[in-house]
Amino acid sequence: MRYAQLVVGPAGSGKSTYCSTIVKHASDAKRIVEVVNLDPAAEHFDYEPLVDIRELIHLDDAMEDEELKFGPNGGLVFCIETLLENSDWLEEQLGDVDDDYILFDCPGQIELYTHLSVMRKIVELLEGWNFRICVVFLIDSQFMVDGAKFLSGTMAALSVMVNLELPHVNVLTKMDLLTKTARKQLDNYLEPDPHVLLADMRNAHSKWHEKYAKLTEAIGEVIENFSLVRFYPLNIKDEESIENILITIDNIIQYGEDADVKIRDFDEENDDNVNCD
């Protein structure tokens, strides 16, 4: 069995930083985690990729082609479709090693995950190559500190969950950049309570709330009653925070559960003593 995190989220949510953080944390724990860059528009990152889509196609290739004439969004979709058409290349680059643990650092175009089918096809390829996959949806915590934005972010996460149909972990990034006031406000939302969200939106004198209060309340209650979305805060400067996220994901994809149980030295000695008796 092989293991993978599909790291997705809006542009600027910290996907590449998350990947490099997990790689460093794993390395410190004497554990090997690789990263595959699936963003054809990436300019730089702090990890050495196992596979880089830019070696196959770069966003600039699609945008500068005189016949295609793609813009940034259309070019990104074209690049991922090109990757699908060259899946043999990706399979060869990945190799076939049991117990691989790979992070797939994905583009920041949210449409790829919410309603287009290209990322779902990538998932199907990986599953066919014996990967257990967890989607890690990142969203910047700084954009989630009021009721309306939190509800919007929650709906985006839910849309990704429905489209990709995979085990799913939502992570609030850049927690280390929040002020104490913002952190306290966000803490109220980590266990979604529609009444808290509604109160905040009411206090903000939102015109949307005034007109669609019942709709907002209904959405909040659906999320709460069915436990559809939960967010995990991540502070990359806190090793315990990083470890908690990694343990959560490892449990979901059952990483390590197939490993053989190792007998400690003193257990073997005790067994010998029992046999001697």
Automatic annotation (TrEMBL):
One Pfam family in the UniProt entry: ATP_bind_1
SUPFAM superfamilies: P-loop containing nucleoside triphosphate hydrolases
Keywords: GTP-binding, Hydrolase, Nucleotide-binding
GO MF annotation list: GTP binding; GTPase activity
CDD domains attached to this UniProt entry: GPN3 (cd17872)
Chaperone recorded as keyword: no
Ranges in coiled-coil conformation: none
InterPro entries given in the database record: Gpn (IPR004130), Gpn3 (IPR030228), P-loop_NTPase (IPR027417)
Family: Belongs to the GPN-loop GTPase family.
Stated role: Small GTPase required for proper nuclear import of RNA polymerase II and III (RNAPII and RNAPIII). May act at an RNAP assembly step prior to nuclear import.
Quaternary state and interactors: Binds to RNA polymerase II (RNAPII).
Name of the protein in question: GPN-loop GTPase 3
Highest classification ranks of the organism: Eukaryota, Metazoa, Ecdysozoa, Arthropoda, Hexapoda
